[in-house]
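// run 5 | inverse folding | seed 20
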């Protein structure tokens, strides 16, 4: 199939960007979306133009590196699917596709479709870990964890840190991401020694970055490729309240 792409091109954070149109020719329906971009880039390089810069690594939906807005939707049209797992059978000959980077002040564009997501790393650095000694693997098995609690923690741990939730949110809020990181550890007994400092420090860091506030639109959950539930935002608010003013969860 042949497609027309309108791609955001921007040389650096300090320069203005604009959409540039390209023809993507002889695209196989079995290609992934990123493979289609690879084909376009090979043609650009062949003609001496700069290839379109985009982030990618595993191309299996597990690392969280890829991310772009496709026809207005972070990661494209497929639910709970990263853009690296989106396939060209979604499209038909003659389609036009608009491709742009995550749009958020907290994610400045580095080049083309690549944005700086280090704000998310700085939130994780404030508490997304366990520093208490948890022993070795056999010791972990000696700490009873109810199955429902372990499963809920694992649901939160599915967050791959892609930032689509921020890109989808009209406020560019990072609440879904932060809530997943807090819930993953605060739900487990191994996370309890740092439960209070974790939620206070991670929320403080989130607020010091250029993210907006959550106003319950729910666009984050819809865009999330891992189906992280907004229920975790409710959990984060409860954890924060308990940590800030005391009381029981
Ligand atoms: S909550 Fe979902 S959309 Fe947000 S960073 Fe994690 S995996 Fe990506
Ligand atoms: S490249 Fe790893 S999730 Fe897409």
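// decoded
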């Amino acid at each position: 199939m042949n497609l027309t792409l309108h791609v955001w091109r921007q040389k650096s954070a300090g320069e203005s960007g604009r959409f540039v149109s390209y023809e993507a020719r002889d695209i196989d329906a079995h290609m992934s979306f990123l493979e289609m971009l690879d084909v376009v880039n090979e043609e650009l390089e062949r003609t001496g133009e700069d290839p379109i810069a985009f982030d990618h690594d595993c191309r299996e939906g597990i690392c969280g590196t890829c991310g772009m807005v496709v026809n207005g939707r972070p990661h494209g049209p497929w639910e709970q699917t990263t853009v690296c797992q989106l396939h060209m059978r979604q499209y038909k000959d003659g389609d036009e596709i608009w491709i742009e980077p995550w749009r958020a002040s907290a994610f400045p564009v580095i080049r083309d479709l690549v944005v700086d997501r280090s704000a998310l790393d700085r939130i994780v650095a404030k508490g997304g870990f366990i520093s208490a000694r948890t022993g070795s693997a056999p010791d972990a098995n000696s700490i009873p964890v109810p199955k429902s609690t372990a499963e809920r923690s694992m649901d939160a741990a599915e967050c791959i840190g892609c930032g689509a939730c921020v890109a989808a949110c009209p406020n560019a809020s990072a609440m879904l991401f932060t809530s997943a990181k807090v819930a993953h550890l605060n739900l487990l007994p191994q996370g309890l020694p740092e439960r209070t400092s974790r939620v206070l420090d991670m929320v403080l860091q989130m607020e010091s970055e250029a993210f907006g506030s959550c106003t319950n639109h729910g666009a984050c959950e819809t865009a999330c490729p891992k189906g992280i539930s907004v229920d975790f935002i409710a959990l984060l608010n409860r954890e924060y309240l308990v940590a800030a003013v005391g009381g029981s969860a």
